[in-house]
Amino acid sequence: MEQQRREPAPETEVTLREFTEADAEALFAWASDPRVVLFQRREAYARVDEARRYILDHVLPHPWYRAICLGAVVVGSISVKPCGPAGEEGEGASRASLGYRVAHGHWGRGVATRAVRMAAAAAFAEWPWLARLEAVADVENPASQRVLEKAGFVREGVLRRYVVLKGRPRDMVMFSLVDSDRDERAKPKLLLQVKEPFELNKE
Amino acid sequence: MATEVTLRRFDLSDVDAMMAWASDPEVAAFCRWAPFASTETEALLAHIRDTALSHQWYRAICLAGDARPVGSVSLEPTADPCRGELGYVVARAHWGRGVATAAVRAALAAVFGEVEGLARVEALVDVDNAASQRVAEKAGFRREGVLRRHYWHKGRVRDLVVYGFVSGDPLPPSHEDEVCKPLTRLGLVRPASHSVQRTRLGDRWSEKRQPGRRSARTR
C-alpha cells in the first residue's frame, strides 16, 4: 500500500450493513483490483457476474458478512467466521476469524480500522461463546498489520508457511482480540497514584 | 544421546498396548480426548479402525527391538492444505526417556516426503504443559508465539503455545545420526533401507476434514 496523506474519513461516516445482490458492481470494483486481491487467496475477478455469483453463493449464506459503507457508497467488505460449532466444546468452539477488504481509492483513511473495531464489537456482542477473534496479515502487508494494531488487536507472532495464497505458502502474522482484552478496556482507569511507599504483608 | 524409536502403521493387534495410554487419565489430561475405560476394548478397536487405520498419517511409536507400541504420533488436517498439526502421546511408563522427542523428530523427518503439498507442521501445546513444550523444542520445532484463548478444553478456554516446523528447518541429530551412521561408515553395520509410501494431500485429506470438527480421538 502506498503511503498517502489523505483526509481521514469522519468516524460517523463509516457504517456496516448486509449485502444485497445489487451490490455486485461495488464489490467487483475492489474484487477486480489486483492491488486489493494481492494478499487474498482468490485471483482478481474479470467480470461483474463473478462478483454477483460470489454474493449469492458465499456472502448471503455466510454467518456474518457486511458491506463497509462510507456514507451511501459501498467501499469494502468485512467478514467474521466462527471456527467451529458454536456452543459445543472442542476444535474452534470459542473462536472466530476476521477478514476485510477495502477499495484502493479509500486506503489510508482509517476506513478499515473503523470497520474492524465495529465488527469486533458486534461479534463479541452477538456471540456469547466467543473468547477469541483472530486475524492474519501477510508478513509483507504492513498496512494490514497496522489496521489490526490500531483496532486493538494483539500481535502474537509469525506463523511460517501458514496459508496458501495464489498457490504459494505464505508467512502470516497472527493477531487476536480476546474477551479479557475487552474486559480490561472496559474497566475505569485508576486516576489516583500512591505517592508514599507502603508495606505489604511480610510473609 | 538420542533415544532410538521406529514409527510404523498401527494394526488391530496393537489394541492392548494402546489401552495402556488410551485409558490413562494422566496421559489424557492435556489431550483432546477423554480416556477409555480399560474394559472398553471393543470401543478402542473401533477407534483404531476408524481413526488410526484410515488416517492419512498416523504412526505407532516403538522402542528399539520391541514390536509393541508405546505411543502414537499423527498429523491432523487443518483449514489449509499446506499445514498439518502434529499430535503425540506416550504411555506414562515411558515418560522422561526422550521417547516422545525421538518420535516427533522422526515424524518431522518423514512427513514432508510422505504427504504431498505439506509446507508446515505445527504443534499446539497448552501453556501449562511444560513437558510437552520441551518435547517440541528438543525435537526441532520453533516456538512462534502464544495463541490466547484458543481452545475450549474440558470446560475451560485455554492459551496454547504454537510451534512451527517448515520444510527445510534443521533437525537435531537422531539416534541414527549419532550411532548408526558412524557404525555404517566403519563398515560394522549395513545401511538401513526403507521405502517411502507417498500419500496425496487430496481426496482422503479433505474427506476426513469436517468444518470445525476434529476427525481423530475426540469423544
Automatic annotation (TrEMBL), chain A:
Protein name as it appears in the record = N-acetyltransferase domain-containing protein
List, for all copies, the residue spans of the domain called N-acetyltransferase: 14-171
Q: Which Pfam families match?
A: Acetyltransf_3
PANTHER family recorded for this chain?
Answer: ACETYLTRANSFERASE, GNAT FAMILY PROTEIN, EXPRESSED, ACYL-COA N-ACYLTRANSFERASES (NAT) SUPERFAMILY PROTEIN
Q: Which domain of life is it from?
A: Eukaryota
Q: Which GO terms describe its molecular function?
A: acyltransferase activity, transferring groups other than amino-acyl groups
Task: Enumerate the InterPro entries for this protein.
Answer: Acyl_CoA_acyltransferase, GNAT_dom
UniProtKB/TrEMBL annotation, chain B:
The source's superkingdom equals Eukaryota
According to the UniProt entry, which residue ranges have a biased composition of type Basic and acidic residues? 200-210
Which residues lie in coiled coils? none
Q: Where is the N-acetyltransferase domain?
A: 5-172
One Pfam family recorded for the sequence: Acetyltransf_3
Any single GO molecular-function term of the entry would be: acyltransferase activity, transferring groups other than amino-acyl groups
Region feature Disordered, mapped onto this chain? 194-219
- Name the SUPFAM superfamilies for this protein: Acyl-CoA N-acyltransferases (Nat)
Show the PANTHER family listed in the entry. Answer: ACYL-COA N-ACYLTRANSFERASES (NAT) SUPERFAMILY PROTEIN (PTHR46067:SF27)
Listed name of the protein = N-acetyltransferase domain-containing protein
**Organism of origin:** Aegilops tauschii subsp. strangulata
